[in-house]
């Protein structure tokens, strides 16, 4: 099923309400207006105008149980401002409803290089985290699109920085550092599935604390005493023998 919401926080409230209701959908995905417009402008899907966020949900329970859960999800969506709510059971219909989610990333890439990262917060904190991402985007004047495995609290703030705009890239880094810090303040983790990479090293270090970092360093030193494997990255200070 899908539903459209007037704002990121309202969609986040619906996600939190699904958790509170004890419903565990097999998928609960979020796509914001930047992604929706990018997809619609590219593929001409005829998505509704004047909507800011789409939530997509699936339930796997068969028969009347699945129908009851779908009805409860629809009620939750509507209660939190959802509109244009649609349900489908045929696989082809479901594929059509999920097309915007599948094509969001390639559609965004048409607008410029996309900084692809992720953070993860408790599902109850999804509304607040989405609000803070919006605030960081406005504060630092950067374009941030949002896709999320919202049912897991796994959020993907996708920052778009035009090619050659070094000032925008610098602002994007500052904005992302703030997003990572806010994630941790809300009881989250710096990554839910994409790994730490390079951009989130400081956030990961703050989250793991020194004792865990020392353990990682010990493993690194044992396997790579000369510091020849991927040098200068996560463990730039590995000692040599």
CATH C-level class of the domain at 2-117? Alpha Beta
Kindly identify the CATH topology of the domain at 2-117. Answer: Alpha-Beta Plaits
- Give a short account of the largest sheet: 8 strands, antiparallel
Q: How much of the polypeptide forms β-strand, as a percent range?
A: 15-25%
Average pLDDT: 88
- Return the CATH architecture of the domain at 2-117: 2-Layer Sandwich
Structural class: alpha+beta
DSSP helical segment count? 9
Q: Give the topology string: H per helix, E per strand.
A: EHEHEHEHHHEEHEEHH
Q: What percent of residues adopt helix (DSSP H or I)?
A: 40-55%
- Basic shape: globular
Give start-end ranges of low-pLDDT stretches: 237-241
Query: What is the tally of beta strands?
Result: 8
Distance between the termini: 59 Å
**Rg of Cα set:** 20 Å
Would you give an account of this structure?
- This protein is α+β, with helices and mostly antiparallel strands.
- The protein has helices at residues 8-20, 33-43, 63-79, 91-97, 99-102, 104-109, 126-140, 166-185, 201-223; strands at residues 2-5, 27-32, 53-58, 83-86, 114-115, 119-120, 143-149, 154-160.
- Strands 1, 2, 3, 4, 5, 6, 7 and 8 form an eight-stranded antiparallel sheet that branches.
- β7 and β8 (154-160) form a beta hairpin.
- α1 (8-20) packs across α3 (63-79) and α1 runs antiparallel to α7.
